[in-house]
Amino acid sequence: MHMTADAREVSKTASGATATRDIYLPSERKIISGGGTPHVVAKDFSIYYGEFEAVKKVNADILSKYVTAIIGPSGCGKSTYLRAINRMNDLIPSCHTTGALLFDGEDIYGKFTDEVLLRKKIGMVFQKPNPFPKSIFDNIAYGPRLHGINDRKQLSEIVERSLRKAALWDEVSDRLDKNALGLSGGQQQRLCVARTLAVEPEILLLDEPTSALDPKATAKIEDLIQELRGSYTIMIVTHNMQQASRVSDYTMFFYEGVLVEYAPTAQLFTNPKDRMTEDYITGRFS
Amino acid sequence: MNLGTRKILDRSFTAVGFGSIAVMGIALLIVLVPIITNGVGSVFFTGTLEHRKMLFNEFGRGNTEELAKENASSEVYRKQIYGMLSAFEAELETMESEKKQDYLSKYGPVKTALQTLIGPLPGEPEAILTRYKYGQTRWGKAEEKLHEFLYETKWDFSNPDAMSKEYFVSRATEFEGTSLVKLFPFVEEHLEDVLRPEFTVYWGFLTDSSVDSHIFGGIWPEIQGTFFLAVGAMLFAFPLGVIAAVYFTEYAREGFFNSILRSANSTLAGVPSIVFGLFGLAFFINTLKVSESKSVLAGSLTLAIMILPTIIRAAEEAILSVPKTYKEASLSLGSTKWNTIMTVILPAALPGIITGGVISLGRAAGETAPIIFTAAVSVGSAIGLADVFSSPTPALSWNIYNLASEHEAAAEIRHVQYGMVLSLVSIVLLLNLSAILLRARISKKLKG
């Protein structure tokens, strides 16, 4: 019921939009609807920095348990859009939004939305690895402790489980009490993933997670995304189009704040519907 | 600009930089060397028997037997001195009155000088002030006094165009032909036997109370007072300052009100400290009546107000220097703002906050003006912890000034003044050093 209403509205926009560019839904939408449900839904969703409209009237469904990549040139609003989903943009005082952004049908920017609870469900990994200057154990246990788990045994289990999920356990299991800043960049980033997983989020937002890493560490993070696919809804912003095509099921292309094209990854990269998308992925501009 | 000019410019810039640092170093040396050498002299010096007698009588310290032995050996020579005095006094009686008057007027100063040198003479009424109960306790000082005993200081006013000149006249020549003339070479020769100088280490200088307003004894009340005042100021200013800094950096919104607050804080940091002193008197003592009169509490509060802006500024800087990514990471894990501040931001900012705090502590310990009207007295005994709400206290900074300029015998107690200065400098230096070490330790822990 919810689904159909949604689909109608989005497709309406897709066919009738003149102010913005045409919005394409994933073509296999109907097939997906059997297994996947929209997890985050944007309806005419705009983000402003003061007067400047950084993201313009986006209408899109992010499907549950799939990996969605967001690509586009610098300053196109892709990070802004990603950070809007767990309200990290609240840190910027001039930032405000219009339209609606729904998470499980609830308005993320609603008057009574508790952003702290929201962020617990929507975890985020940042561009630069940002472990706390604490021990590896305390880094992972930070989230669970915040949410009231203080039993040492229970915490140990969570730490091990999270580190295993993030494919880091074998590398650090013997030095959990060492400072996390002593790890390599790639290990730090996987630690950040583990730390996010420890609070058991439903959505994982990855904001250019490999841009500060070397190719080897990048490959490990990509492997990790493959591991986690299917268990979490994952959104990843990336500059690297090969990466987008390797790891994602769907891809969104943003240009100057507009969601230009949104399609299954294979289709977007092989048969883009929009000229702009084609120019971008063939490297005519960046 | 061509390469040659550029190089010359670079070099001259380096030269000026080095020059200014060198000037600073030399200035520091000129100040510190006398402070250290003279200050150390307040603890390590050549003490006389009078010093040991004083310690025994005033502080009950020392070996009774040994002291008795020393006294006996000193007494042998004293007896001879006293004998010469009484022989001369008997001789005076036989003189005709005019001559007697003449000698009496010269004999008075001799007796006073001798008394200053070796302590009270027999037959004199007992001194009321402790300082007159003993001779010279320090050998260096005794040698000066010996000179004063042997020579009378006179001034030559004959040339009205020039400054009058100081010259010395031997007292012995003035008593030519009397029996007293033997006294002067005898005292000169046997002063060591009378005073028995010995190398002394007097740690009591740091832990004893003063006797007869710093003529004897130590500076413990001042050290303790300084400690009370500085720590008291910290107790008020540190929590307030950190909370204010958290407000400024994390909660305050940019706006008119906030910018007024900020500039008020900056202005407060530049207010002369004497103004804070007056403010403390007017506000804490006269208006709020935190205490009847001067008290450690009032002084601490005044110092707290004075160092508050510095603490706020340092804490603000420290909090702002915490990478924003820590905050983002914490918030993205579903942490509240309060939790993020307490568990991530403040711990990471701790080295900077502590450094600012300890430097302010050093400043509070060294400031004089704010405590003149609110807490400091020039002479007093050490106060108990329970008295801080009502009693004033002596403090190093104020007493350094007081002893050097207002003490009635300032020239006699230079070693105490230097000792106080060295103590204060050491305390501030130690505080700053501990701040550096603490900072290094926490930073190392944070960096892993």
From TrEMBL, chain A:
Residues 40-281 form the ABC transporter domain. GO terms for cellular component: membrane. One of its GO terms (molecular function) is ATP binding. SMART domains: AAA. Keywords: ATP-binding, Nucleotide-binding, Phosphate transport, Transport. One of its GO terms (biological process) is phosphate ion transmembrane transport. Gene3D superfamilies: P-loop containing nucleotide triphosphate hydrolases. The keyword Transport applies. PROSITE patterns: ABC_TRANSPORTER_1, ABC_TRANSPORTER_2. NCBIfam families: 3a0107s01c2 (TIGR00972). This is Phosphate ABC transporter ATP-binding protein.
TrEMBL record, chain B:
The keyword Nucleotide-binding does not apply. The keyword Thylakoid does not apply. GO terms for biological process: phosphate ion transmembrane transport. Residues 223-439 form the ABC transmembrane type-1 domain. It is a multi-pass membrane protein. It is found in: Cell membrane. One of its GO terms (cellular component) is plasma membrane. GO terms for molecular function: phosphate transmembrane transporter activity. InterPro entries: MetI-like, MetI-like_sf, Phosphate_PstA. NCBIfam families: 3a0107s02c. Belongs to the binding-protein-dependent transport system permease family. CysTW subfamily. This is Phosphate transport system permease protein PstA. It comes from Chlorobium limicola. The lineage of its organism: Bacteria, Pseudomonadati, Chlorobiota, Chlorobiia, Chlorobiales.
